Amino acid sequence: EAGVVQSPRYKIIEKKQPVAFWCNPISGHNTLYWYRQNLGQGPELLIRYENEEAVDDSQLPKDRFSAERLKGVDSTLKIQPAELGDSAVYLCASSYNEQFFGPGTRLTVL
Amino acid sequence: GQNIDQPTEMTATEGAIVQINCTYQTSGFNGLFWYQQHAGEAPTFLSYNVLDGLEEKGRFSSFLSRSKGYSYLLLKELQMKDSASYLCAVRDENTDKLIFGTGTRLQVFP
Fold it and tell me: In whole numbers, what is the pLDDT of chain A averaged over residues?
């Protein structure tokens, strides 16, 4: 069974540029999460979806971050414009009970 | 409020036993998770405790005391490949959100 798939794995952009990350969860997992993980820290939740509905986006910086999960399967997370402080690993996870994480996208903003 | 504490770093010798402690304070508790994360990789699920006591799974065991807000992960017969960060995470009963600690970086030496 395929795990959580994310792309791209790495992204380097200049500040003020837009960037988007894509996630395909494990089949049958209705709950999808986007986390941000800074170096030496644990993951911090940005947004959680139940099917296509965002049920917790309290930690998402809505001035520059947006996310969508059309049709309740794949999801995209966008940053526009990116800032230097956005450099981090962006992890997608899906769950039925315990959460399974994707490999993450390592974003570097120059 | 929510607070999760675990040691930043630990070292151990191959073949030995190591215990990684985690203490937590949350407004509502609905389970504690341990994840393993190798450098540059996604967290992988190790264990889940929701009731007090010890859960054993091969070389890894996890213990929970809800009254003390305390858990530990016990790793036996350490192998070099066990060198990784170990993340303690608590699920908040009210929000169903996973709150992660900063992780304990374990280095196993020959």
Answer: 94
* C-alpha distance from residue B71 to each of A45, A46, A81, A105 (Å): 22, 26, 41, 30
Contact A43/B100, CB-based, under 8 Å? yes
Which residues lie closer than 8 Å to B58 by C-beta, 6 or more apart? Answer: none
Buried b vs exposed e over A6-37: b needs ≥16 C-beta within 10 Å?
beeeebebeeeeebebebbbbeebebbbbbbb
In this prediction, residue B27 carries a pLDDT of 81
**Which of A30, A34, A37, A105 is best to mutate for the B interface (most B CBs within 10 A)?**
A37
CB A5 within 8 A of CB A94: no
